[in-house]
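queue> pop job 88
queue> type: inverse folding (structure -> sequence)
queue> payload:
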């Protein structure tokens, strides 16, 4: 969701610059900074951004300028009078305390923001032309985000391949663990039979079944493989998929946690921990996907 775009233009003796920036966010967070006289553009800008972008913290700034000789100059007399009165009061207070101050000048006052404004020429339709440039800037931003998306998709695809490798290793490790567990159980059963004449075979079989069920990771393996397929489908789909991928990462993490909890084997536990690391890396990348 990261991107930048800038567009400049001019019409009817008014010049403008659009600056658009976007970073990752769970939803669409749009922030506008418009100059005086252009506030009426906000509803239209929000509409156009919402039609093209679905996620991201987007900052939009518009700067305008009047070309040389365009419009008239207007002084904010109310602001000037208030500032002059405040300056006079400050000078009196400073003088009473023996603190010398540099005298106020008209040039200094005129340089203050908002003191002097220039009127847009009558009949100017610069905003329509500026909106056309905004659309172009928005397209540039969308292309920048799409280019980043291609790179992120490649990173996620490699991560999914690593998940597949780890899941395959987990399945093989679980099978080897089951074989070792079976050998241990058979040896214990033989020793138990030798040491006693009374053994409840049905109860013993139930206990073995309970142990096997608690340690069985077949469902986790199957679900992890299904999540990999679902993630690849989303990466190849058109339209926004960020929220769906975010949810899928939570499912990946849940299965990895369960796999570790059921492992009862150092090798399988190590594989589960490696899997959790890869899932965390994918979750970080998914935060940048629209």
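queue> result:
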């Amino acid at each position: 969701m990261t991107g930048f775009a800038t567009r400049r233009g001019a019409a009817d003796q008014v010049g403008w610059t659009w600056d658009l920036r976007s970073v990752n966010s769970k939803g669409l967070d749009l922030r506008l900074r418009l100059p005086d006289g252009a506030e009426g553009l906000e509803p239209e800008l929000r509409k156009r951004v919402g039609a093209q972008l679905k996620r991201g913290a987007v900052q939009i700034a518009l700067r305008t300028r009047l070309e040389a000789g365009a419009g008239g100059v207007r002084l904010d007399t109310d602001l000037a009078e208030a500032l002059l009165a405040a300056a006079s009061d400050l000078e009196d207070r400073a003088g009473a305390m023996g603190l010398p101050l540099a005298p106020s000048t008209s040039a200094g006052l005129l340089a203050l923001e908002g003191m002097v404004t220039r009127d847009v020429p009558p009949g100017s339709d610069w905003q329509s032309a500026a909106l056309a440039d905004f659309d172009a800037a928005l397209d540039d931003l969308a292309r920048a985000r799409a280019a980043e998306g291609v790179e992120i998709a490649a990173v996620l695809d490699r991560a999914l391949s690593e998940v597949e490798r780890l899941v395959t290793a987990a399945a093989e490790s679980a099978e080897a663990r089951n074989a070792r567990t079976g050998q241990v159980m058979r040896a214990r059963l033989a020793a138990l039979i030798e040491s006693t004449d009374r053994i409840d075979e049905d109860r013993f079989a139930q206990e073995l079944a309970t142990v096997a069920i608690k340690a069985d990771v077949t469902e986790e393996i199957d679900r992890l493989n299904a999540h990999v397929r679902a993630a690849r489908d989303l990466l190849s789909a058109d339209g926004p998929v960020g929220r769906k991928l975010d949810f899928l990462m939570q499912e990946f993490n849940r299965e990895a946690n369960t796999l570790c909890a059921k492992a009862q084997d150092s090798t399988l536990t190590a594989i589960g921990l490696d899997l959790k690391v890869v899932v965390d890396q994918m979750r970080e990348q998914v935060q940048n996907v629209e």
